[in-house]
Amino acid sequence: MSLSAAPLLLQRGETVHRRFTPFQSSFRYRIAMVDIDIDRLDDAGMVSSLFSIEKPALFSFRQRDHGALKRQPLRPWAENEFKKAGIDIPDGAIRLVTFPRHMFYKFAPLSLWIAMNDANEPQAILYEVRNTFGEKHAYAASLDGRWSRHEAPKSFHVSPFFDVSGRYAFSLQYNPEALRLGVTTLKEGKPVHSATLVTRAEPATTSALATTALKMPFSTIGVSLGIHWEALKLWVKGARYHRKPRKQVDSPTVAHDGHQTT
Fold first, then answer.
1. Cα-to-chain-centroid distance, residue 28
2. How far apart are CA 111 and CA 60, in angstroms?
3. pLDDT, tens digit, for every residue of 29-69?
């Protein structure tokens, strides 16, 4: 079975964050994510004894952790979010790239809902962003080919050390073998922060999942711990604290196309 046809893949790599102003700071850490076909959850649950759907396991996936936060099919929620953004999607697969539930814990600061066409090319995406206050918001974009650039106004509170202003510049490359994502926060046309995510896809075999658990035993909870640790360091350095505003945006924020190539 080709990677593009697999109901479940493992995406392993690293993320790097850089702050440029009023002082410079950066951090990087390794991550492990799952890449799952949301219409084939039962098949995904049969890939490995270390991964389950709706049941406890070393790694697992539960529908109530995503989308409408209920134990119900995920596709209607994703289709409705794309519809609210004015984006028509094909009838192909929708791949969800997210952090798995690891043992008892689940936190996904970013999940990617990628709508594919019959040729297994990405046609649209929802960047579902969550903060540590339990809130979430989606940015939606149409895609043209496997390499896309688009921008959207920042409209969701993510970090107390950045206000909700400026724009996001997205750069995305997704294919059956790899994922490359860059998100740069721009203010008055100048970058103030950048985040990159680079992973390579591989079959989610029992061996690969076991290796991930051994080499990255805190692969999911470590993301949450890392966020708070970096926030503490920013506070010590004197970063300005911004109170969390009331969340007012419910519909996805639409990202408009920038320079694109296929």
1. 16
2. 15
3. 889 999 999 999 999 999 999 999 999 999 999 999 999 98
The pair phi, psi for residue 118, each rounded to 5°, is -65, -20
Cβ neighbours around 261 below 10 Å, total:
9
Compute the C-alpha angle 208/130/64, nearest 5°: 65
Beta-bridge partner residues of 171: 149, 182
Taking alpha carbons only, the member of 60, 141, 68 closest to residue 98 is: 60
pTM of the model: 0.89
DSSP secondary structure letters along 207-237: HHHHHHHHH-TTTTHHHHHHHHHHHHHHHHH
What is 2-60 written as a DSSP string?
Answer: -GGG-SEEEEEEEEEEEE-SSS-EEEEEEEEEEEEETT-HHHHTTS-TTEEESS-SSEE
Burial 93-122 (b: 16+ CB within 10 A, else e): bbbbbbbbbbeeebbbbbbbbbbbeeebbb
